[in-house]
Amino acid sequence: MQLGKGDMEIKTFEVADGIYRISVGPGGRLEFNHFVIVDERPVLVHTGRVGWFELLKEEVGRLVDVRGIAYIVFSHFEADECGALNQWLGVAPRAEVLTNRIGRATVEDYSIRGPRLVRGGERVDLGVHRLRVLETPHFPHNWDAVLYYEEREGVLFGSDLGAHWGVGEPAVEGVEVVEAVGGFQRETGFMAGGRCLEEAIEKLEALEIRHLATQHGSTIYGEGIKLLLGRLKAEFGSGVEAAGGRAYR
Ligand SMILES: [Fe+2]
Ligand SMILES: [Fe+2]
Do the beta carbons of residue 72 and residue 95 sit within 8 Å? Predict the structure, then answer.
């Protein structure tokens, strides 16, 4: 479906049983992905930005009744993660926003409804799916960062982890994007490097991740995910000089 603005497109793809990826690719340079878990208690992962709320709502509405969304989750406070939070809360009257202790005050000040607090290791039962909360401060960036792992299908909602340029296939084998992900980080420096990255990746290495549902780029699957995590840790972890952030161009 066209967004009505040049080459902006919105596309839906089933990542795993009951888990859908909805991508928006403004300008074709970088994709912004949102995920929906269809279950007794449906979840929206990333609200997206305010500018594409109406289109996203229509697309999400093909999968679930948006009024019945139970949880809205995101990694950290940033426009692509939660910019349209209040628009979603407006159409989903029972939806709860999940955040951790660090993100709480920011969400309370911004949101039209207060958040529900979650802690690392906690599980949120959705019906047949189950989300595990991972607290990963400063990773991929921002102190309030958390990641969510869906245990039944082995899907990690990685936020900016795994990001790579372009609008391509909805899903690719990990080995195909290892270089692209490393190159994106080298170019932009947008993930905090050093010990935070290393500690977060070690938490992730203990999981059985079958799909890395990144926010930017193709969903990554297969054995290559392990290779990718290992490469990122080796290149940007604590044994090396911390990656400096660079201005986004
Ligand atoms: Fe981010
Ligand atoms: Fe992002």
Answer: yes
